[in-house]
Amino acid sequence: MAGIVPFLLHLIFPVRCPLCGRAGSCGCVECIKEVLSPNFSLCIKCLGPYPCSEHSSSFPHYWGARHEGMARKLVHLLKYENNGALGVSMGMALASYVTGMSADALVPIPLHIGSPRLFNQSRKIAQGLSLKFDIPMRDCLAWNVEVAPRASKGSTRSELPENSFKVTGSLGGIKTAIICDDVCTTGATIQKAASSLAKIGIEVVGSISFTVGKGPKL
Ligand SMILES: [Zn+2]
Ligand SMILES: [Zn+2]
Questions:
Q1: Which helix (H) or strand (E) holds 92?
Q2: How many angstroms separate the alpha carbon of residue 85 from the centre of ligand 1?
Q3: 11 part of a folded domain
Q4: What total of structural domains would you count in the chain?
Q5: What's the pLDDT at 153?
Q6: 138 is a domain residue
Q7: What protein residues have CB closer than 5 angstroms to ion ligand 1?
Q8: Residue 10 included in any domain
């Protein structure tokens, strides 16, 4: 009898929080917050502490956890098991550890050309951030070039061409933006996205990702 209520809940809501197992939750914001922690912001050019004495034209990158352990597992559940609602909760949890972020729009890194994914995981995280920060999301970027989904081991994306992205959506009235990604490995992708927005007069004042790979200075 004791197990009948969770069983019935599971029939009605056939999902469970991957952290606490609660039926009907795709991922509790409070559970995900336990996986993250407040972190110092990073220089997007070298992933060292921000402000950076070597890169005066850089902007701060905010992040929730290193790309390892349970944080990495959550990114994988979001991307490979099509748990889109989890991504929104991940964005909301991430927002609770970041202060002082202000911009006219949140811009997610788009899916790669030909991606088999059902949805853009970075957009889901941006949706959660948007709800908490009360900053509108503008899904306005598209890849111009075909690249491997992630830099392979030992390589970087610093060789990405300058015109890696194009702006596809309307950005009227937007002067500043924050770029959002699920994982930041080298910062190269975010920097190219920032260049494409700069070309149409939008200043990128920061970027944010759920996790950060082990950068050279982390
Ligand atoms: Zn939970
Ligand atoms: Zn730097």
A1: helix 84-95
A2: 13
A3: no
A4: 1
A5: 45
A6: yes
A7: 17, 19-20, 22, 28, 31
A8: no
CATH number at residue 186: 3.40.50
Kindly report, residue by residue over 159-206, the tens digit of the pLDDT.
788 889 999 977 888 999 999 999 999 999 999 999 999 999 999 999
Q: What tens digit of pLDDT does each residue of 59-84 get?
A: 999 999 999 999 999 999 999 988 89
Instruction: Please give the distance, rounded to the nearest whole angstrom, from the Cα atom of residue 55 to the centre of ligand 2.
Output: 5
Average pLDDT over residues 104-109: 97
- Cα dihedral: 200, 205, 210, 211 (round 10): 100
**1 falls within a domain:** no
Q: Report which secondary-structure segment, H or E, holds 167.
A: strand 165-167
The lowest-confidence range among 81-90, 110-119, 142-151 is: 142-151
Look at residues 36, 80, 89, 86 and name the one whose alpha carbon lies nearest to residue 212.
36
Cα of 214 to ligand 1 centre, how many Å? Answer: 27
What is the span of the domain harbouring residue 183? 23-151+158-212
DSSP assignment of 51-76 equals S-SS-TT--EEEEEEESSHHHHHHHH
Contacts of residue 8, Cβ cutoff 8 Å, sequence gap at least 6: none
Query: What does residue 208 show for φ and ψ, rounded to 5 degrees?
Result: -150, 140
